[in-house]
Write a structure and sequence with these properties.
The complex is a heterodimer of chains A (about 50) and B (about 160). Chain A is about 50% helix and about 20% strand. Chain A is an alpha+beta fold. The longest helix of chain A is centred in the middle third of the chain and has 26 residues, at about 15-40. Chain A starts with a strand and ends with a strand. With about 160 residues, chain B is α+β, with helices and mostly antiparallel strands. Chain B has one domain. Chain B has helices at about 30-35, 55-70, 100-115, 145-160; strands spanning about 5-10, 15-20, 40-50, 75-80, 120-130, 135-145. In chain B, strands 1-2-3-4-6-5 form a six-stranded mixed beta sheet, with helices on both faces. In chain B, a hairpin with a 4-residue loop joins strand 5 and strand 6. In chain B, about 30% of the residues are buried. The chains are: A alpha+beta (about 50), B alpha+beta (about 160). The interface of A and B includes residues 17, 43 and 46 of A.
């Protein structure tokens, strides 16, 4: 049986929180770039799996 | 390691894009040095088109995609960050923050897939990082054989950034 372990880091320092926020911003930017490529037709020749 | 990309279209016409790629950017050099032949793989998931509620067929396709990748890449640990910026469509205001919603959803998806497929040696660590008014979530999916490394990653998320 698979298990999930929950780890809570309480009262993280300002430095850690700033880093976490920056990782999120960087990720959001990468996702926006994927969206832009789609909007500009860069994936038109890619395989799209129909569910 | 090449990026793995899959695009799929739901029966309601919505289009989703998932990328799995090597990503050591969230780890300290100490942990990276300990990895040896193990790869840390990040996930990026984006809805590219459509506004319908995400149905079970899409969630199942996401689960299969990640599971197939993980099965084929025995020396991988999957480590992903739950996005806090993009809102969750079709949720009412004043519900939980999007990163917490995603964390709970992905945890449930992992549990369901593991139960359905009888996975016994795969684990998920949910790392919740709390500030005064904010929370962030990392998920680490790993095989038992990589438990020590997964534990180091969990620790590193706090102490690695504190140095």
């Amino acid at each position: 049986m698979a298990k999930t372990e929950y780890i809570t880091i309480k009262n993280a320092s300002r430095k850690v929180l700033q880093r976490m926020r920056q990782i999120g911003i960087d990720k959001a930017q990468r996702l926006q770039e994927i969206q832009k490529r789609w909007d500009e037709g860069e994936y038109k020749n890619s395989e799209i799996v129909q569910l | 390691m090449e990026d793995f990309v899959r695009i799929f279209r739901s029966s309601t016409g919505d289009v989703y894009h998932i990328t799995l790629s090597e990503d050591h950017s969230v780890l300290s050099s100490e942990v990276i040095d300990s990895l040896q032949d193990v790869n840390i793989v990040g996930i990026e998931l984006r809805r590219l088109a459509g506004t319908n509620a995400t149905g079970q067929e899409v969630l199942a396709a996401i689960e299969r995609t990640i599971a197939d990748y993980f099965t084929e890449h025995k020396n991988s640990i999957i480590c992903y960050y739950c996005d806090f910026i993009n809102p969750i469509p079709h949720t009412s205001k004043n519900t939980m923050p999007p990163q917490e919603y995603r964390s709970r959803l992905f945890d449930k998806m992992f549990q369901r897939y593991s139960l359905q497929h009888g996975l016994t040696d795969v684990r998920l660590s949910v790392v919740e990082i709390n500030g005064i008014n904010e929370k962030y979530y990392f998920h680490v999916i790993y095989r038992e054989v990589h438990s020590l490394l997964a534990s180091m990653i969990g620790h590193d998320l706090k102490e690695g950034f504190d140095k």
